[in-house]
Amino acid sequence: MPKVSILVLNFKQAKLTIDCVESLLKQTYKDFEIVIIDNNSEDGSFETFKKEFKNNKKIKVMQTGKNIGYAGGNNYAVKRTNSDYVAILNNDTVVQKDWLEWLVKGFKIDPKVKVVGADMPVVGHKNPKVDSKKVGVTKTLTGYSVFFNRKKPLKDDTFVDQFSVGGCALIYDRSVIDLPFPEEYFIYAEETYFNWLIQLMGYRVIKATKSRGDHFHNIVKKTGGSKINHRFTFLAERNMYINMLIFFSPKNTLKIIPLMILKAILRNLIEVKKIPDHLKAYLWILFHPKYIHEKRKFIRSVRKVSDDIIVNRLSYKIYDPKKMTSFNSLMSFINKFVWVYCWIVRLKTIEFSK
Fold it and tell me: Is the pTM for the entire model greater than 0.90?
C-alpha cells in the first residue's frame, strides 16, 4: 500500500484547519500521514496545533518561519516528507471518509496517471450545477476555468480526464516530479502550471468524481482586508499571463497574443477598480523577459507532447457566459467572434474535436 503525505497549509485559520484534519482522521485508506504547515500565522495557530494533536502520531506540525504563500508553503512540506504520493488539501475543506481511497485508486487505472483531483463543490457558490457526464470543465486558451459540452455523454464518470484539477484537493506521484509549484507564484495559477507541466511530460491528469468533500472558498480573501486583495489581484493576473507566455509553442503564442490582449481589455472594462493592480502585473511581465525565457527553456527541455494536443484539451472561450450572468449576451457574442478567429488560425480547441 503506497504511503501518502497529506499537506494542509494554514494561515490564521486554526479552527478551519482543525475541522479539516478531523475529517482526514476518519479516512478508510490507512497508510497516510497528515502534515500541518503553519505559514507563520503569528496568532498562536502553531501552538494550538501542537497542543491539539500532540498525542497523534499520524500528524506532523511544521512552521515555515515566514509567510511564503500557497506555493512555497506546500513545497516546504514536500521537502520534509518521504512518501510515495503527496496529497495537497486546502484547509477550508471537509472531506468524506473515502476521499483519499478514491484518489489513490486513480493511479491504478493507467500507469500514465500521475495526478488525480477530487470533486470538491464550493459551498454556497453561485455557479450552475452541471451533470459531469454531459458537461466537462477545462481552462480557456487565456487561463480561465469554463464548462464545455461533451460530444457524447460519459457512460461511467468515476474517473475523468481533465486538463487541470483544482489545487484545493489533488494527489500526485512524486516519482515524476518532487516539488509541485513554482514558489515565485506565491498563490494563484500554480496548480494550472503544475497540471500543464505534467501533461507536457506525457502523463495523464484525471478527476476522481467519487472522491468528494466540501470547499468553503475564498475565506482568506474575505478576511484578509484590502491590502491582501490588491496583492492577490496582482498575482492572479500576473501568474495567469506567465502561464500563457511560457507553455505555448512560439507558433501558438503568436496566435494567442491577440486573445490575451482582448481578454485584458474586457477584464479591465468589467473590473475598473482593479486596473492599477492589473497594470502592475503587465509591467512585471514586460520587465522580466529573462524570467519568461528561462521558463520557456525549461519547459522545452521536458516537453514530450505536441502543443496541438494540449490546445485540443482547452477551450476557445474568453469567458464562460454561464459564470458572467450580467454580461451573458455580450460574452456569447465575443465568444462567437473568438470561435471564428480560432478556426481561421487553426487553434483546434476541445470544441473542434470530432
Answer: yes
The Cα-based distances of 61 to 10, 81, 186 in angstroms read: 10, 12, 21
The letter for the amino acid at 150 is R
Cβ atoms of 259 and 141 closer than 8 Å:
yes
Residue pLDDT, tens place only, 2-34: 999 999 999 999 999 999 999 999 999 999 999
What's the one-letter identity of residue 72? G
The conformation of residue 179, written as its DSSP 8-state character, comes to: -
Domain limits of the chain? 4-221, 224-352
H or E, element range at 9:
strand 4-10
Roughly what angle, to the nearest 10 degrees, separates helices 226-247 and 250-270? 160
pLDDT digit string (tens) for 95-136? 999 999 999 999 999 999 999 999 988 776 555 566 677 888
Picking from 97, 64, 91, the residue whose alpha carbon sits closest to that of residue 10 is 91
Spatial CA neighbour of 292 closest among 244, 231, 330: 244
Q: In which region does residue 309 sit, left (phi positive, over 0), alpha (psi from -120 to 50) or beta (all else)? A: alpha
CATH fold of 4-221 reads Spore Coat Polysaccharide Biosynthesis Protein SpsA; Chain A (3.90.550)
